Amino acid sequence: METSLTAREVQEALEERISNGFYAPGERLPPVRSIAAEFGSSPSTVSRALQEMMRNGLLQVQERQFVRVRDKLPAKTIRSADIARTIRSVAHKWKLWGGGREELLATIRELVGEVFESEVQFVFTECNANDLSLMGDQVENEVPNISMVRQLIDDLDAGALAKSRAVVVVPYYHYAEVRERVGEDVPIVPVHSSPSSETLDELLTIAPGAKALVVGHNKRSVARLSGLVRDYSDAKIAGFTKHEQAKIAKAIPSADVVVAVRDAADMLEKTPGIKRLITVRFVLESSLRSKLAAAEGRRQFPIMGSRQ
User: What predicted TM-score, i.e. pTM, was given to this entire model?
Assistant: First the structure.
């Protein structure tokens, strides 16, 4: 069974997008199923996240049809409110345990000082070599002054990462499985990724009612690509993982278009019978520089802190 984001993690990811302006005040959010496909989660999980954001005054339902960001957001920023809740919770626990105010403040100063003075090793990770290379290049171009190594998710070693005081950088889509793999002691900086403009341009040209064959890395990848195709076309979709080669070969002759992740597209490029092949490429968000700078100072990312 594949790990997926919790409702809290989906909520934090969406709140981050609102905080950095990706979703502007008054803007309509994508459908629940599209958000679920993007983050590799379930529609019910996304619905719980949206309901909590409505209770917090960030979203509202428009004419019972779709959810949009409120025109006027709460005065406190999302990040500062999240930090305040965390600090208040720690202070209450400390008080209940019989600790004193000055002792708590001294402990906080010591820990914060340790984090700010430490060397940080960044590790960018992805599930396959093609995306690791492509997005890794994007990271290096955007933050040339930050040293970052690249490792496949399957090669991550929790013990080695903790020992080297590493910070793992990963697209939100893989956050849950990376967290499960490295544990709670290794900080993770999740970053948003989205289809490239070239990919979106190609998806928009798929004819209404066309038969689309989607090929992804795994079941979660297939769900994500299917949601993407569904958002930009009225195609009839069938999907398989790249390892289901017999099923793919059987479906190709009747497919009007094949939509595949990069390494699957490379594998299928010369397959007889393909009428059209769209290679899906993802790019990282443009706010990566500030996020990594923050992680380098704190060796953690505040929004994705402790689970609630």
Answer: 0.70
